[in-house]
Amino acid sequence: MDKNHALDAFAALSQAIRLDVFRLLIKAGETGMSAGDIGQTLNVLQNTMSNNLAILARAGLIRSEREGRSIRYFADMEGMRGLLAFLMEDCCGGRPEMCQPVINELACAC
């Protein structure tokens, strides 16, 4: 991930609804959630939710799959890994082994 892509991701997460959406989709895991369910859970109107989902998708933080007439959204774990890798690429003054405990804590089997 390059600096501009990282800035896009941070900008997407810097708004409360989008951060809530991303965290909700992380929690939903591989089952994801429909846009309607996300909006209902967070008490956000459909048009507002659509805009926020589009911003998160453009930032590479979520992905979607069409299911008939609805769309299911998922946290894009590769996008998140890329962002975390960008933040930690020069970890500990070039001694990445010192950051291994943090990396191990962040890693999941999802």
UniProtKB/TrEMBL annotation:
Q: What positions does the domain HTH arsR-type occupy?
A: 1-95
Entry annotated with the keyword Transcription:
yes
Q: Which UniProt keywords apply?
A: DNA-binding, Transcription, Transcription regulation
PROSITE patterns named among the record's database cross-references: HTH_ARSR_2 (PS50987)
Q: May I ask which residue range the UniProt record assigns to the signal sequence?
A: none
Looking up Pfam families in the UniProt record yields: HTH_20 (PF12840)
Q: Which GO terms describe its molecular function?
A: DNA binding; DNA-binding transcription factor activity
Instruction: Give TM regions.
Output: none
The protein, known as: ArsR family transcriptional regulator
